[in-house]
Amino acid sequence: MSIRGGAIVGSLALGVGLLLAPSASADVQGPEACPPDVWNKVVSFAPTYESIGNTAGKRNASPTSAILRYDLSTTTTKETKWGAELGGSVSWGIGEIEAKTSFEITNSTAKGVTFANTMNVPGGKYGYTTPKIERRKFVVERWQDTSTCGARKLGNVGTLYGITAYPFFSECVASSACSPKP
What is the rounded CA–CA span in Å between residue 167 and residue 49? Predict the structure, then answer.
């Protein structure tokens, strides 16, 4: 066979090879593929504060700083709330948040509970305090690993409006009446 004939036969073989379908399937994962695990991710938002009692205030009549004690009773109840989207309950949501974050969640507070708060108040100044709760919004998202080692969001399992500090005391010190912040 001449060189020219070999080139023609080689070109035909190459052309036929290009027409053949590849033997690999897109559904078959290679050994490097990630398993399709499903997992939850918790997203935390900034805290908000809600009053659970009345503001108390005292004036330090001493010319020097003093520790003033305030006995405060709660006047309302508050609850951790769960809004389910893909499922779960309040107790499941609390467990999921506590397992995936550094927060401890209080399920509910009671009315008529007395707490003591102390403040260092300079001489001649007023010290005011209010009992509150700290509440945070947490969204529990459901994710799945993809075969290409990425992740895709399946949706939100739910939203927890959790009590993350109880009691929390807002305070202020001033020459006259003031409103405790936050």
Answer: 11
What does the pLDDT read at residue 3? Answer: 54
- Cα(11)–Cα(27) distance, rounded to whole angstroms? 32
- Structural contact between residues 167 and 52, judged by C-beta atoms closer than 8 angstroms: yes
Query: How many Å apart are CA 134 and CA 136, to the nearest integer?
Result: 7
CA 105 to CA 82: how far, in whole Å? 12
Q: What is the pLDDT of residues 22-51, one digit of tens each?
A: 443 444 455 567 778 999 999 999 999 999
Which residues, 6 or more positions from 36, have their beta carbon under 8 angstroms from its beta carbon? 144, 145, 146, 147
Q: Which residue has the tokens 């305090």?
A: 129
